[in-house]
Amino acid sequence: KINETQDSLPEEKALTILLYITLPFSVFGLFSNGAVFWFLCCRIKNTKYTVYVLNLAIADFSVLFCHVTNLFITVPISLYTLHLMDLAHAFGFNAKTYVLTAIAAERYVMIFFPAWYQLRRPKHFSEIVSVIFWGLSGLLAITLHYTCNLEIDTSLQEANKHCEPTKMARVIINLLIFLPIMVFSTCLIFTRMLPASQEAPLRRLDITIVATVLLFLLFAASVRIIEIIARWVPKIHIPILFLSLHFLDAIDSSGNPYVYLIVGYSKTNKWNCLYKLNADIKEKKLQPMTLLKVG
C-alpha cells in the first residue's frame, strides 16, 4: 500500500500541473472567442467567410465553456449533469469540424472553379450550410447521448445495443467523410498559396484557413483519434491521458482567435511597409525636381 501511494504521488502532481496549465488556456480562449463573436456581430459587415468564422467562434466557445466548467467544479454533481456537459461538448466539437470543412471546401471551389462558383453559389449559402451543420451536429450528439449514456441504468440494458453503432457512425461521419474533405481542400489551397503573384488579401485568407485547419489537425483531430484507440485498448484509460486530451482540445479551441490576430497584424505591418516604401520612392523622385527648380 505504501508503494502504491508513492507511485500515485507523481501522477497526482502531473495531474495538478496539467490542470493549472489547461485552466488559463480555457479561460483566455473563452474571452478571445467572445471578443471575436462581438467583433463580427457589431463591428464588421457579414460576408460569406465571416459567417463561417462566427459559427466557428460559437463552437469553440461552447467547447471551452465545458472545459472551464469541468475544471472549476469542486463539489459533487450528478451523473446527469456530467452527461449534459458531454452533450454540449460533442455538440460544439462536431459543429466546429463541419464548419471548418465548409470553409476549406468552399475556398477550394472558389479558387479552382471560379466561373462555376460565381454562377451556382446561392446568395445565403454560408448561412444555410451553417444551420444544416449545426443541426447535424445536434442530431449526432443527442443520438449518442441517449444511446450510450443509458448504460448506467441496468433496467435499460436493451437500449445499449445501439451505442456502438452510433459511435461508429460518428467516426465515419467525422473522420472518414468530413476530415478527408478538409485535408484535401486545405492541401490544394496550400499549393495555390505558393506562387508569389497572388494578391495579398486572397493570400491572407488562405493563410488563415491553412493555419486554422493545421491547428485542428494537430490538436483536436489527434485527440479524437487517440480516444478511438482508447476504446479498443483499455490499458490507456488513465487520468493523466484524459486530462492531456482536454489540454490539447483547449489549445485548439483557444488558438483560432490568435491566428486571426497574427495574420491580421502581419497584414497591417506589410501594408505599412509598402506605404512607407511608396512614400520614400515619391520623395526621391521629388528631390531632383526640387533641385532643378532651385537651380
Task: Give keywords.
295 residues, mainly alpha, Rhopdopsin 7-helix transmembrane proteins, 8 helices, disordered C terminus
Structure characterization notes:
This protein is mostly helical. The chain has a single domain, classed as Rhodopsin 7-helix transmembrane proteins (Rhopdopsin 7-helix transmembrane proteins, Up-down Bundle), CATH 1.20.1070. The protein has eight helices and no strands. The chain has helices at 2-42, 48-72, 79-112, 114-120, 125-148, 163-193, 200-232, 239-294. The longest helix is centred in the last third of the chain and has 56 residues, at 239-294. It is a multi-pass membrane protein. Keywords: Cell membrane, G-protein coupled receptor, Membrane, Receptor, Transducer, Transmembrane, Transmembrane helix. It holds the Pfam family 7tm_1. Residues 32-260 form the G-protein coupled receptors family 1 profile domain.
Helix and strand pattern: HHHHHHHH
How many strands, what sense, and barrel or not for the largest sheet? none
So how many helices?
8
Judged by helices, strands and strand pairing, the structural class is: mainly alpha
Give the terminus-to-terminus CA distance: 98 Å
Strand content range? under 5%
Average pLDDT taken over every residue: 78
Just name the CATH architecture.
Up-down Bundle
Low-confidence stretches: 1-7, 273-295
CATH class: Mainly Alpha
Main location: membrane
Keywords: Cell membrane, G-protein coupled receptor, Membrane, Receptor, Transducer, Transmembrane, Transmembrane helix
Subcellular location: Cell membrane
Protein name: G-protein coupled receptors family 1 profile domain-containing protein
